């Protein structure tokens, strides 16, 4: 009985691990997709993109 319980918990643990990994990958993909213009600008050394209203949409933009 104890062995069956241990095997069941191992299956639950593996499922939780894969679920967590999947969620983390989805979140990372979303964040990279949303901020792709800022990431490219930071890599190239260009000024960060601005919102349509003229204000910077990122907290790390320098204020004037």
Q: What do you see in this structure?
A:
- This protein has 64 residues and is mostly helical.
- It contains two helices and no strands.
- The protein has helices spanning 2-34, 36-44.
How many strands?
A: 0
Q: What spatial form do the alpha-carbon principal axes imply? A: rod-shaped
Sheet having the most strands? none
**Which structural class do the helices and strands define?**
mainly alpha
Number of helices: 2
Low-confidence stretches: none
In percent, how much strand structure appears in the residues? Answer: under 5%
Percentage of residues assigned to helices: 55-70%
Rg, please?
Answer: 21 Å
SSE sequence, one letter per element:
HH
Please give the alpha-carbon distance between the first and last residues.
69 Å
Mean pLDDT: 83
Could you give a short description of this structure?
The protein has helices at residues 2-34, 36-44.
Mind sketching the topology for me?
Blueprint: H1 2-34, H2 36-44
Task: Provide tags for this entry.
66% helix; mainly alpha
